[in-house]
Write a structure and sequence with these properties.
Helix content: 40-55%
Order of helices and strands: EHEEEH
Number of strands: 4
Distance between the termini: 76 Å
């Protein structure tokens, strides 16, 4: 099993969702692991485990805020991406309709 130390800011959406699922009400003192890194700095982390990897997710004061606002953030990102897709579809429809109008105008000119 792989072991990785990662900052919560670098979690992909899948790991972030797993973190929220693992700590739905936030993390407590019993969940925090404190250790000294190679530079002699103290690091605090929480455990997160997948099928093949054991993560220690570095925490800070802003991680609690991240957990609290995760659902809202994901919802905003999904809304933004779906609106971009709708704009692309509408643009493609508009180009198709304009193409059809041009074809009709050309047929009228020929008569």
């Amino acid at each position: 099993m792989l072991r990785k130390l990662i900052d919560y800011k670098k979690l992909d959406h899948q790991l972030a969702a797993l973190l929220i699922e693992t700590y739905p009400d936030g993390y407590g003192d019993d969940d925090i692991i404190t250790f000294q890194n190679a530079s002699g700095e103290y690091v605090q982390a929480v455990e997160l485990q997948t099928d093949d990897t054991f993560y220690l997710v570095k925490i800070s004061k802003s991680l609690a805020n991240f957990i609290a606002t995760f659902d809202d953030t994901i919802e905003r990102e999904l809304d933004a991406s779906s609106s971009r897709i709708l704009e692309e579809v509408e643009s493609a429809d508009m180009e198709f309709e304009q193409s059809q109008e041009n074809d009709t105008e050309e047929e009228t000119d020929v008569e």
